[in-house]
Amino acid sequence: MAEEMERLAAEQPGFIGVDSVRDASGAGITISYWESLEAIANWKRDEAHLAAQRRGKQDWYRDYKVRICKVEREYSFPMEIER
């Protein structure tokens, strides 16, 4: 389902990218990046995404947390051009 949601999100206006990591137990974090709050709101209303959320609550997750954050700056090592 995660792969399907990533594929679907990538087709949405305003989608920038996604990062996801999991530990050996399967616990993890997924971060999706969007151009605007409007793009996030549109993704939140997507029917397939809503169905995946319902299934997650029923079958996969005991709990989860959503944070909406603004990336002010990004850089890495070795240094890349700042965005």
TrEMBL record:
Q: Which residues form the ABM domain?
A: 3-55
Keywords assigned by UniProt, alphabetized: Monooxygenase, Oxidoreductase
- A GO term, aspect molecular function: monooxygenase activity
Tell me which Pfam families the record gives.
ABM
| Taxonomy, superkingdom | Bacteria
> Among its keywords, does the record have Heme?
no
Which organism is the protein's source? Cohnella terricola
Q: What is this protein called?
A: Antibiotic biosynthesis monooxygenase
